[in-house]
Write a structure and sequence with these properties.
about 280 residues; 10 strands; Rossmann fold; alpha/beta; 2 domains; four-stranded antiparallel beta sheet
Length: about 280
């Protein structure tokens, strides 16, 4: 397990009238080489949780063990491995403009590599490779990242992370605000990263993504862990209590089962999977 969260709690503004417990004694494990979704309604603690993974914030109590290589805990001691941790586990936030700041796209993607000691010419070459990987061609390289569309900014932000070759990639609402074509491009890229052996963590409100792309799902509610398992296991429960909707495809498969069609819903992530099973039953 690359990530083990142990009795993790986080309190915003402790010992003040506005004290808020964002995470309450959360323990969970995220498996290696798979896509895991973290879901829950707004304010459930999702963003706070992922920020503890690479010590953007320190827990109030408990700890996070990253692949037995790094430990994030509430200790006041300085973490001497913080730079290595953030190269090993990198986060792409929901609003990519917060991560873009250089004067050109290529310099923005190369920045992280230069920060880790690579000379600029080699960093630029690697930046170009990463940009091609996310579908950004050379006509964009010398443009300002602030002139790009939302989808293009999202791809550039992801390129700035994958160029570092992290083992674990966390994406916060990676398709928010994108049109269907832009969403598919990002999701196809996520699948390709999984095939490379990366561990992917998605924070999302989109249950269609959870069913179609994710191997595992973690549900937070009011700062507490309320579910961990597969998407099929989640959608087989009463998800309304978590303010989660069942994906239309899953609901349709359930109705077919109720009408007597023997389907293995745990193996259905797309219309193609459903059609394949229907053909086998004929």
């Amino acid at each position: 397990m690359p990530i083990k969260v142990n009795n993790l709690s986080y309190i915003y503004l402790p010992k003040t009238p506005n004290e808020t417990k964002a995470l309450n004694n959360v323990s969970l494990e995220i498996p290696n080489g798979q896509i895991t979704a973290i879901v829950g309604h707004t304010g459930s603690g999702k963003s706070t949780l992922i920020q503890t993974f690479n010590q953007l914030i320190k827990p109030s109590s408990g700890f996070v063990n990253i692949d037995d290589k790094f430990v994030v805990e509430s200790s006041k001691k300085k973490n001497k491995k913080i730079k290595d941790l953030r190269k090993y586990l990198s986060i792409v936030f929901q609003f990519p403009e917060y991560q873009l700041f250089e004067e050109t796209v290529e310099k923005d993607v190369a920045y992280g590599l230069k920060n880790f000691g690579l000379k600029e010419p080699e960093a630029i070459i690697k930046a170009h490779e990463a940009l091609k990987q996310v579908g950004i061609n050379e006509s964009f390289y010398l443009r300002s990242p602030f002139e790009l569309s939302g989808g293009e900014k999202r791809r550039v932000a992801i390129a700035g992370i994958i160029v570092l070759d992290p083992q674990i990639i966390v994406l916060d609402e990676p398709t928010a605000g994108l049109d269907p074509e832009g969403s598919k491009t990002i999701l196809d890229l996520i699948l390709s990263l999984k095939k490379e052996g990366k561990t992917i963590i998605l924070v999302t409100h989109d249950m269609n993504i959870v069913q179609s792309y994710c191997d595992n799902v973690v549900v937070l509610n009011k700062g507490e862990l309320v579910f961990q398992g597969t998407p099929s296991e989640l959608f087989s429960t009463d998800v309304s209590r978590f303010s989660i909707e069942i994906p239309p495809l899953y609901a349709f498969c359930q109705s077919l089962k109720q009408k007597g069609l023997n389907l293995d819903i745990s193996k259905i992530q797309s219309i193609e999977d459903l059609m394949s099973q229907i053909k086998e039953k004929r």
